[in-house]
# Entry
Amino acid sequence: MRTLVHLSDLHFGRIDRALVEPLRRAVSDLQPDLVAISGDFTQRARRSQFADARAFIDSLKAKTLVVPGNHDIPLYDFVERLAAPLARYRKYISADLEPEYQDEEMIVLGVNTARSMVFPFGEGRFSMQQVDRILERLKNIPKSLLRVIVTHHPFDLPPGVHERRLVGRYAMAMERLAAASADLFLSGHLHISHVSHVADRYKAGGHAGLIVQAGTVSTRGRGGQAPSFNVLRLHRPGIELERYSWDDSAAGFTSLPVGRYRHSDSGWTLDKK
Ligand SMILES: [Fe+2]
Ligand SMILES: [Fe+2]
# Structure
């Protein structure tokens, strides 16, 4: 069994300061095998915001796998935005923009979908080369390992969110990743915790992976949800997904079961039992 904590969109600069220590404690108490953080570490890519994000990551005292978000690229510093968009992210958060983690039960691959050129790439994008890299990496991985892809920009949307917020080239990327039996897609960007099946949006060739969105603990828009993060307990052929939401009355993050999924020939299905 593996415990994977999924945090996203911490947005240091707009994080709810009162929640930082409770969040750190909640994550530590879970003793995760890995903490995946799917981008937007900062609000405006300022050095001080990155320094605070770095201190938070260090304070978790856990293995982490991180990818950048669009807010980790300076917005108004045009020289830096165009010349070295992720220089500060690389300095403070991770020099590796496409990190990997592997153990006996899972392989987790991070993909940088943040782009400095908003036009023509929109909010974020998956390139053909990035898909090639993942397929190459998954080629010789035993079927028994869970295959997890981490991006900032999402492959699916909660109801009511406009399609332009999907990761660019999502159809091309998903068609090929589904064919490579990718099991789980973790992302953020929308600040709304949500789970759906790949087959809900895509023709997945009979393999339905799960698309999992994490919420945020920042004070930016959260679609009416409380500050939250996700916890996945992975024990193939099962996945249990829980949302940990901030509960004022408990003065802490409390867990809510979202679903138990079981793997079958056609992918992950909701376990009714
Ligand atoms: Fe964000
Ligand atoms: Fe974002």
Q: What stands out?
A: The chain has eight helices and 13 strands. The two ends are 19 Å apart (CA to CA).
